Fold 1-acyl-sn-glycerol-3-phosphate acyltransferase.
Amino acid sequence: MLFLRSTLFQILFYGVTLVMMILLSPVMLLPRRWGWWVVPLWSRMLLALMRYVAGLKVELRGLENIPQGGCMVALKHQSAWETVTLIPHFPDPTFILKRELRWIPIFGWYTAKFRQIPINRGKRSEALAAMVESAKQAICEGRQIMIFPEGTRRPAGAEPKYKFGIAHLYKELQCPVLPVAHNAGLYWPRSSWLVYPGTVIVEFLPILPPGLAMDEFHTQMVERIETASNRLIDEARHAPHPSPVLSRLPENSSRRGSGSAQATVT
């Protein structure tokens, strides 16, 4: 049953995405802000598929921590889940993504139309300079820059590998940073066809203000995201039907965040 549900979800996930991109392609003729509504609509459609086909729900905590205006959003990267589902909670987000995604037919056109920020990983110094200029413009426009500080997806519970590039960007932009933790990798694991039913918990953590030293910012960001993410993984062990992925992870109760966050379930 799990395989069949996952297969149906995967087919619908990519099928709905393709059909929506084709049918709604006339928005390419509109100004970016007028056509943006198709992106959160797409995200909500995929959330509905996850919930009603794959049995995957969402619990959101700390929505009150999302700042107004321009900011960076530093996301834990465990799954394909977080790349598509958090879009409706930000008024005008732009993702920092690898340049190769621009080359995908139709999908790449949308990333260009809605001014997502590409980065050429093969030319690090040039890529960083171009990314900084695009990011500065986005902040000036009051947009939210969505970035995955680890650069690539890491399995839930794996040793983190954060890159320092976000600290350079933080210094240049002088804007608040919203750290985001979650446990999506337990339910839609990296490179997995199977999507397990359950509830993904997301925490929007207290912001890191501008003006910190780069090392201090990076240390605090990693500590906040990892502490919360590990706590959410531990919390998932007590769910009514824990994800089978948890059986492959060691018990990790020592690193727990403090405090509580207001929760919203969708």
Q: What stands out?
A: The beta strands are 56-61, 71-75, 93-98, 117-119, 144-147, 177-182, 198-204, 263-265. The first strand starts at residue 56 and ends at 61.
